[in-house]
Amino acid sequence: MGTVKIIFADMVLSGDNALVIGMAAASLSPQLRKQAIILGMAMAAILRIVFAAGAVFLLKVPGILFFGGLLLCWVCWRFFKELRSHVPQKAGEMLEVKGYLGPPRRQLLNALITITIADVSMSIDNVLAVAAIARDNLYLLVFGLALAIALMAFCAALIMKLMSRYPWLSWAGLFFLIYVSVEMLWQGWPHLAGSLGFGGLSA
Predict the structure, then answer these.
(1) Torsion of Cα atoms, 169 then 174 then 179 then 180, to 10°
(2) Is the Cβ–Cβ distance between 25 and 95 less than 8 Å?
(3) Is residue 202 domain-resident?
(4) Between 127 and 72, where is the model more confident?
(5) Is residue 197 part of a domain?
């Protein structure tokens, strides 16, 4: 079951990251837009590798499951707002248009700044979510992190297109993340309470 959770979480979070990259690059001219998307995807994959290096240490942090659940709650809220604003559909539509034809260097820089901030934030989200789901299973952790890196490097654009074409996939992904976050909070609280000396409250 943990493997299935990690696969779905990686797919949804990678697709969400790709949507942000697509929206940031949509205002560029076609040539610059392609460059920005390629750079953004590569940067997201590299950042996942960097943060994954410290994932083993995260598993030793008391209450990591509970805090991972809180993190996923925030991701769910952000994803919900994107869906309410029809971001997946807008990203798909805007990437099909001609794009902005103004001063390219300034516009590319602005897009890359937005993409970099999003990549850092969402890479941390993805790595912590995988670590929290895997818990003390090192093999599951390695699988989840490797899958997250592979999806971001090779399949994120495809996931983004599917999410923009079929909105129900995005909503299904959101409901799955909500389920995972609630389960993580429920299972993680007793461990966190025990580490804080509130054993009576967690009983």
Answers:
(1) 100
(2) yes
(3) no
(4) 127
(5) no
pLDDT reported for residue 150: 87
What's the rounded mean pLDDT across residues 19-48?
81
pLDDT above 60 (res 2)? yes
Euclidean distance between CA atoms 199 and 202, whole angstroms: 5
Q: How far apart are CA 58 and CA 62, in angstroms?
A: 9
pLDDT digits (tens, 9 = 90+) for 136-186: 677 888 898 899 888 887 877 777 777 777 777 778 878 887 887 887 788
Asked if the structure places residue 96 within a domain, the reply is yes
Find out whether 114 and 24 touch, Cβ atoms under 8 Å: yes
Residue 11 CA to its chain's centroid (Å): 8
Of 25-34, 113-122, 123-132, the poorest mean pLDDT is in 25-34
Burial class (CB in 10 A: 0-12, 13-18, 19+), 37: buried
Whether residue 90 lies inside any domain: the answer is yes
DSSP labels, 59-78 = TTSTTHHHHHHHHHHHHHHH
Q: How many domains, the chain?
A: 1
Contact of 32 with 108, CB cutoff 8 Å: yes
Residue 202 CB partners (closer than 8 Å, separation 6+): 189, 190, 192, 193, 194
Band of the pLDDT at 200, cuts 50, 70, 90?
A: very low
SS3 at position 130 = helix
Residue-number span of the structural domain to which 140 is assigned:
2-192
